[in-house]
Design brief:
The complex is a heterotrimer.
Chain A: H1 2-8, H2 10-16, H3 18-40, H4 48-56, H5 62-96, H6 108-121, H7 127-150, H8 154-178, H9 186-190, H10 203-227, H11 230-236, H12 240-262, H13 268-280, H14 284-308, H15 317-340
Helix pairs in contact in A: 1-2, 3-5, 3-14, 4-5, 5-10, 5-12, 5-13, 5-14, 6-7, 6-8, 6-12, 7-8, 7-12, 10-11, 10-12, 10-14, 13-14, 13-15, 14-15
Chain B: H1 2-22, H2 32-35, E1 39-44, E2 47-52, E3 58-62, H3 64-70, E4 75-79, H4 90-98, E5 101-103, H5 112-117, E6 122-126, H6 137-141, E7 146-148, H7 157-167, H8 171-191, E8 201-205, E9 216-218, H9 226-230, E10 250-251, H10 258-262, E11 267-271, H11 280-286, H12 289-292, H13 295-298, E12 302-305, H14 313-332
Parallel strand pairs in B: 3-4, 3-6, 4-5, 6-7, 8-11, 11-12
Antiparallel strand pairs in B: 1-2, 8-9, 9-10
Helix pairs in contact in B: 8-14
Chain C: H1 2-32, H2 40-47, H3 54-85, H4 97-110, H5 116-138, H6 145-169, H7 172-181, H8 191-210, H9 212-219, H10 222-227, H11 232-254, H12 260-272, H13 279-300, H14 308-330
Helix pairs in contact in C: 1-3, 1-13, 3-8, 3-11, 3-12, 3-13, 4-5, 4-6, 4-11, 5-6, 5-11, 8-11, 12-13, 13-14
The chains are: A mainly alpha, B alpha/beta, C mainly alpha.
């Protein structure tokens, strides 16, 4: 009841919201710090002073070019993709009422990546609009398939997602072995990475992410009502069917756009909602806001890790998040235990 | 396929006969020469191997494929070797396409039965030493003597292709090809003597990976540089951490290290595809602002080089022509 | 009660006969098929020693036997873990035992010199370590099969990430060899590679056969099992050892072959119409599946052979989705 009061009662919100705003501001400060750090760390060392100067007083020196034109776009991309994955995870978990739901585990990411691979092999997914289109189509099909097969039981949902991911990766690997020239793109889509995206045209997918994030915030009130149960939602006047459909559209858009620019990155959508669930205290709008801030922080940290874990070269960020995500999933299972499974 | 299967039955049968102790090396080879079974000992990567002095039926894989096709060795089966196709002469390409394929591009895709069916009296394997682990050499040895002559340094193709041709008993044609190449290289060296040797050069290779955000820097003696060096060029610097094989002469730094790598270069060369188009990995470097900031690039001294994968004297002739075309502007001043 | 039990037994007997016949057919097909087709008559002549053919007796025969024996071993390992977790998803490849064994093998290749003894030790150690870790993590005021499966999926993701990292760190040429191996392949398997693994698998399977009855009882419920005097914890430990041993041995020779362990016990169980997950149908189905997948892998791209792991992943994954769909419809 306090939950409902906090989210929907504007009068009550005034009183209880202060610590949450403080936390949000703290998160934003952390995000800024990590973003600046990520622009300073890399193969070519750039002193912190130069990072700040590159951002405020651009002179076009090599260090400035590295910060502004190589690492800057990469950091921005990490922010967009991190926010997209975390929010789509929060939306799925709220919608499915399943703490294990996540676009990567549910095979939605794999569907998007596979569709792009097929699309580019057919020569249809050229350019950002084509890639985005195929990614969204792939994630919609995967989401529908997995929910159709796996509904009713949270565990079955997860299992279906894992199976779908395995099938798609097997088929993609087989196709690549049979037609190596046509499926050369497979290497690019088989593992998620943020490297070398600075030259790619990313305006459209990033715009799609921003619009969807705004949409998620607008929808969050209605989802909050939905989270209290469908009866409550109906009495509060939220059209249950419409809200669900809208949320599904947002999930596939966010996940598809993130996969289109970065390839499959797993577990961010799982970890972040769990980390912010407690401070959000059952309020969906806060859950989504926090996810929007913490998702980028996590992905930026993983991306910094991807640059320093090897003596030369990089570990793709998708591998880093999978390694970080494993323990989180274990923690979630132990925490939410047999009851939710 | 069906034709090969019926004839294959004969192959299996004759192989079993052969191994049962009949001793004659092959049906066609049943002439006087092979009945005497003259052999010699040949030093290869896998030890001292006794091979026929005058092999009649040779199977070649990997780097040995283009070398032995050029040298007109008596081939009866080869592995697929796509990367060499654009560099083959029309005649050699026709020969390459006609020959039976007994293995895929990767060593793990070796089809032992297809090799046995080709009834070779010599097998020449041209794969890097660590990849030999993917091949069941023992099984191949039960078919015919196996000589492994794999690439080590990218520039070592001169010695290796000679060894491969030597094993296959095809040195005559090979030596002629080598002479033509060396004459042409010497001619170009004189042509560019006034402009090329004094330049400090750097090279961007084709094997960088965009998805990893790196570029491929090649130093002297690497794929993209060794033939240009024959023309008199010098590439400066050396790898940060030398490894075995190609890792001794090339490395894959992050794109961020482009200025550190090439700031001192007077001129830069870069590998392009055989048809002159720029590969994705190289285009990524060329489009980078860091590249455009380099002094050599600002001075307009960048030169694309085609056919950098050449690993035989025949294909390297293409490379020499390509270098001549690309470097021509240097002479104009 | 009695008649239904009889029915199940008769059905099982028929199934076993059919499966053995299928195994023999696929095995014969494997001996005949290759770059050149050998007639069954010729194959029999070689097998009985009337004729000699190195290709058939030293090249095709070990590969066919490896397909059948490894398939059976994977099927048994799958049945054991599905019994332990009482969940069809509890098979070794899903919960990360394959990935763990592969980690051990990768360490043997990249850090040590990668001899076959090191490969075997490395992969068994890796598999056991992962099994122990999953068991400990899943143990929380009692034991839940479902929890174990999901924790296994998480561990699988982590071990796969670790494997990619090891491969990325390795020297380029070694990495290429290791990548080629990651899909699991029977190409180029020879007698030398097989003697020790076959002996090991034989010991493990015989050990398991002696305890099969106890396992079947245990799978019907802990309460019944304790009542009939089964030392439950000792039995479980033995089962885990046999399961991990089978998985790791196969992985050491052929690399990770996915989804046979998952699919075989479930198909076998349905065909036998039995309660629980019986071992023999699982073993026979596994042998048929792997040998069939390997034949398919050889034929799809002939003369170049695909790794059998690619084929088994696609087949197994599709099967699993079908399985889940059926369960939804029934629910």
């Amino acid at each position: 009841m306090t939950v409902a009061g906090r989210a929907s009662g504007p009068a009550g919100a005034e009183r209880t919201v202060a610590p949450q705003v403080g936390l949000l501001v703290g998160g934003l400060v952390l995000l800024t710090a990590v973003a600046v750090l990520s622009m300073g760390v890399g193969a070519h060392p750039v002193p912190p002073g130069d990072v700040v100067r590159a951002l405020l007083d651009y002179q076009g020196t090599d260090n400035h070019v590295i910060v502004r034109d190589v690492r800057g776009p990469r950091a921005l991309l990490a922010v967009a993709v991190g926010a997209a994955l975390a929010v789509s995870g929060a939306l799925i978990q709220t919608l499915a009422r399943n703490p294990l739901a996540e676009p990567g585990i549910l095979g939605v990411t794999a569907g998007a990546g596979f569709a792009i691979t097929i699309g580019s092999a057919l020569g249809l997914a050229a350019g950002q609009a084509g890639e985005l289109g195929f990614a969204v189509i792939g994630s919609v099909i995967a989401a529908l398939l997995v929910t159709a097969v796996g509904r009713r039981s949270p565990l079955r949902l997860v299992l279906t997602g894992v199976a779908l991911t395995a099938v798609l990766s097997g088929v993609a690997l087989g196709l690549r072995l049979m037609l190596p020239d046509v499926f050369d793109m497979y290497r690019f889509w088989s593992v998620g990475s943020l490297a070398a995206r600075e030259q790619a045209p990313l305006a459209l997918p990033v715009a799609a992410i921003v619009v969807s994030l705004a949409g998620a915030l607008l929808l969050s009130r209605a989802l909050n009502a939905l989270a209290l149960g469908e009866n409550v939602a109906q009495t509060l006047g939220a059209g249950v069917g419409r809200v669900r459909a809208a949320a599904l559209v947002l999930i596939t858009l966010l996940c598809g756009a993130a996969t289109a620019v970065a390839g499959p990155i797993l577990f961010v959508g799982l970890i972040v909602p769990h980390l912010v669930r407690k401070p959000a205290a059952g309020s969906v709008p806060w859950l989504i806001l926090y996810a929007m801030v913490l998702g980028p922080v996590l992905l930026l940290v993983a991306d910094i890790g991807s640059r320093v874990l090897l003596p030369t070269g990089e570990v793709p960020v998708g591998i880093v998040t999978a390694f970080l995500g494993g323990p989180m999933l274990i923690w979630a299972v132990r925490r939410y235990g047999a009851g939710s499974l | 396929m069906s034709i090969r299967r019926t004839s294959g039955l004969v192959g299996v049968l004759s192989l079993s006969l052969m191994l049962a102790g009949c001793g004659s090396s092959s049906e066609e080879g049943g002439s006087k020469a092979s009945e005497k079974a003259e052999t010699r000992v040949f030093a290869a990567d896998n030890g001292k191997i006794t091979i026929p002095a005058d092999p009649k039926r040779v199977v070649a894989t990997g780097y040995a494929v283009p070398a032995l096709i050029e040298a007109d060795a008596p081939l009866v089966g080869i592995s697929s070797w796509k990367r060499g196709e654009p560099m083959m002469s029309e005649e050699d390409l026709a020969e390459y396409k006609k020959l039976t394929k007994v293995a895929g591009e990767q060593a793990a895709e070796t089809n032992y039965e297809a090799i046995a069916e080709a009834e070779p009296d010599l097998i020449v394997i041209g794969v890097p030493a660590p990849v030999l682990g993917d091949i069941d050499v023992k099984r191949l040895e039960s078919i015919a003597p196996v000589v492994a002559i794999g690439p080590s340094l990218p520039s070592a193709w001169r010695d290796l292709s000679r060894k491969q041709a030597d094993a296959a008993g095809a040195l005559e044609k090979f030596d002629a090809g080598q002479k033509t190449y060396e004459a042409k290289a010497a001619e170009l060296k004189t042509k560019y003597a006034g402009v090329l040797p004094q330049l400090k050069l750097g090279h961007v290779g084709a094997y960088g990976e965009v998805a990893k955000g790196n570029f491929h820097r090649e130093f002297g003696g690497s794929w993209g540089t060794n033939i240009t060096e024959d023309v008199g060029a010098t590439y400066y610097g050396k790898v940060k951490k030398a490894g075995p094989g190609s890792a001794a002469v090339s490395e894959y730094p992050s794109i961020e290290e482009l200025p550190d790598a090439f700031a001192e270069a007077d001129a830069l060369t870069y590998s392009v595809n055989a048809d002159g188009s720029v590969s994705e990995a190289v285009q990524y470097v060329l489009d980078s602002k860091l590249w455009k900031n380099l002094p050599a690039v600002k001075a307009g001294k960048t030169f694309p080089i085609r056919y950098t994968e050449a690993a035989t004297y025949g294909s390297a002739m293409n490379t020499l022509d390509a270098i001549d075309t690309s470097l021509a502007p240097l002479l104009k001043r | 009660m009695n008649t239904s039990k009889l029915k199940v037994e008769r059905r099982t007997a028929v199934l076993i006969a059919v499966m053995v016949a299928l195994m023999l057919c696929l095995g014969l097909l494997g001996l005949c098929y290759g770059a050149s087709w050998a007639s069954p008559g010729e194959v029999f002549a070689v097998l009985t020693g009337a004729d000699r053919s190195v290709v058939i007796s030293d090249w095709r025969l070990p590969r066919v036997l490896a397909g059948l024996v490894f398939g059976a071993a994977l099927g048994v390992a799958g049945a054991i873990f599905q019994n332990l977790t009482r969940n069809p998803m509890g098979s070794p490849d899903v919960i990360g035992l394959d990935a763990g064994a592969y980690t051990g093998a990768l360490v043997a290749i990249t850090v040590l010199s990668g001899t076959s003894a090191q490969l075997a030790t490395g992969s068994v150690t890796g598999g056991l370590a992962v099994a122990a870790a999953i068991y400990l993590l899943a143990y929380q005021r009692g034991f839940s099969g479902l929890r174990l499966v999901v924790i296994g999926i998480a561990v699988n993701a982590m071990m796969t990430a670790v494997n990619s990292w090891i491969v990325l760190r390795a020297e380029l040429e070694v990495a290429i060899a290791a990548v080629g191996w990651s899909a699991g392949s029977l190409n180029g398997v020879s007698w030398d590679d097989l003697t020790i693994p076959f002996a090991l698998i034989a010991v493990l399977l015989i050990l398991m056969t002696t305890r099969a009855h106890a396992m079947h009882q245990a799978s019907l419920g802990d309460a019944v099992a304790t009542a009939t005097g089964v030392g439950l914890n000792r039995l479980r430990l033995l089962m885990v050892l046999v399961g991990v041993g089978c998985t790791a041995t196969v992985t050491a020779v052929a690399g990770p072959i996915a989804f046979i362990a998952l699919a075989a016990p479930q198909i076998g169980r349905r065909l036998a119409g039995a309660a629980g997950v019986p071992l023999l149908p699982a073993a026979l189905t596994g042998a048929v599946l792997l040998q069939g997948a390997d034949l398919l892998a050889q034929m799809l791209l002939a003369p170049v052979a695909l790794p059998v792991g690619v084929v088994s992943t696609a087949i197994g994954g599709c099967y699993l989705i079908w399985l889940l769909t059926k369960e939804v419809r029934r629910a």
